[in-house]
Design brief:
alpha/beta; single chain; 15 strands; 16 helices; globular
Amino acid sequence: MKVYEQIWFEDIEQFLICSRRYYMEQKEHKEKHAVISEQETREMMKLGFSVERPVVSTELFGLNLVSGPHVVVPDGDKWKIILKKSAKTFKNKYLMEAAFHGYIFSSVGFIISQVVIDSPYFTKQVDWRDGLSRLFGLIENLAELKMHDLPDPKPVSQCKTCPHVLECTDVLVKKQDLLAVHGLNEKTRIKLIEEGVNNLSTIVQSEKLNQISTESFEKLKKKAISLLQKREIVLSDYQELGDGVFLDIESHTNKDFDYLFGILVEDKYTPFLCENEEQEYKTFTDVLSFLDQTNGAIYHYCAYEPSRFSSLSEKWPDLKPMVAKIRKRFVDIYQILSKHVALPLFTYSLKSVARLYGFSWRTDLDGLRASRYFQLWLSTHDGSYLKTVLDYNEDDTRATKLVWERLNSLRNN
């Protein structure tokens, strides 16, 4: 049976989230480079040594499965795998991950007695065999996918940062799928179907519905037209957005502190970096002072920035007056866009909207990956990691500004 490219557990995770994105990106798959080779791993384990970042592979359903856990250690005449995590609670997906690594090592002769999930917040031993049934079914589905056409798009929350949203929107529109309509919840979708409205063209052609208000249906109709005609449509009037500054925050997912405040003022990007929790108060104070010296609105995209400012003001009550003053200037670009404009997209995330307008990020990071790069910079002091994070944050501020410019252009035209 033909053996395909290497399949690591990260690929399994992507397949679980979105089989379409997995399939699309596997076509451009690049083989990962391990710290040590599989041959070196096997030789060290035969001598009874613990191995950090071991690599072992096996074949299943025509796929080459590659295990690369954090550590494997002797456990009597068997072996124990340790998977290091940063989560505060145990996640069900860890059971499948344990099965993945346990099966691969055991199938090549290194019998795994148990897998330990080790986090700063908990340590849990799991029997990797408990996840085998689901793992085998998933890998079989993954192998079958290789033989069939590209899966249809299925919008999920992770689409917000996916680079394929424009293409997936086009596919949904060609299929006349109601899932292409931004903000259409399942309850409303069922109401539409119950009244015989089961595709985009039917929305446009219908006059009124019994279960949906006239105002809401007219908005749905304009969104459907926007998708079918691939153009923006203004849903309702809005005020011109004046000059201001653009703010974007990056937070450390493991330690719950904000490590980067990026501010764009008159096309100049200024980053405020916080290397650890001890520096957070001073960094935040510097950010407040900097913003207080600027004029106009403080634009951001979605509610994350205001929520972080509120949390930080609760953490340091002496800063509450200044935070309250600054927060009065906050303006959410996303709220204005989603309320007043229909776009030919099924998600109005910053990444999707800015790409629609031709913006390109210099990195392939998202918030979680940026946090990991920041941690790598702290650990290695390799400046390339920090530069990548700063580029990503700066691009977010510039993307927000681009959407602001487009909103003003739409209004004026």
